[in-house]
Write a structure and sequence with these properties.
about 190 residues; alpha+beta; Aminopeptidase; nine-stranded mixed beta sheet; 4 helices; 9 strands; about 25% helix
């Protein structure tokens, strides 16, 4: 069956502010489909709403548009993901519930590139007392799970290097900001 709408991929944990403390909050990772008008509207609106200076969300929307209107002949097809507070009815993503967006490309059978990852600027680490924390970490945890056994790579922004190092990424080359995460297949026999 072909699916032409956003659908649930994984659930993960972040932190939500509650009575001046942060508690665990379940959120969901959904895949957005550029062929779906509701998903494209979601990407367009987030690109506009999160436009505080340079917006990765706007770049993600542009890449999704290019996939439809100017497709490149390439072996790696981008996939678009959103981390959302939304708990059901993923065929209609709720813009105000989206916490983060990412564009991912499977470069080979063993390598996946995180092209862009942006947390809603309202909740990123520049906020003094955000309502949510650990959004980026929760997003990366879901990506590590769904791309288990594959190496994750990315080109980090200078101010995001500490975040990626904290989440297990390493430099490919110390002279660049290209980073990777070795993502081994979990040996479930050790748990038995």
């Amino acid at each position: 069956m072909i699916n032409f709408k956003a659908h649930l991929i994984d659930s993960t944990q972040i932190k939500e502010k509650y009575n001046e403390k942060y508690i665990d909050k379940k959120v969901n990772l959904i895949e957005l489909n550029p062929q779906n008008k509701k998903d494209m509207f979601t990407l367009k609106e987030i690109g506009a709403d999160w436009n505080y200076g340079y917006s990765l969300a706007k770049e993600i929307h542009t890449d999704a548009l290019n996939m439809i209107y100017s497709p490149k002949k390439t072996t790696s097809i981008p996939k678009f993901y959103a981390l959302t507070k939304q708990m059901k009815d993923f065929k209609t993503p709720k813009i105000n519930d989206i916490l983060a967006l990412a564009e991912i490309e499977e470069k080979s059978k063993k390598v996946v590139e995180i092209v862009f990852l942006q947390v809603n600027p309202e909740y990123n680490y520049y906020s003094y007392t955000p309502d949510f924390k650990k959004i980026g970490t929760g997003f990366l945890n879901s990506l590590k799970k769904i791309f288990e056994g594959k190496t994750l790579t990315l080109q980090a922004a200078f101010d995001a290097v500490k975040f990626y190092l904290k989440n297990g990424f390493n430099y490919i080359d110390k002279n660049s900001l290209t980073m990777y995460f070795e993502n081994p297949i979990k040996d479930i026999t050790k748990k038995l």
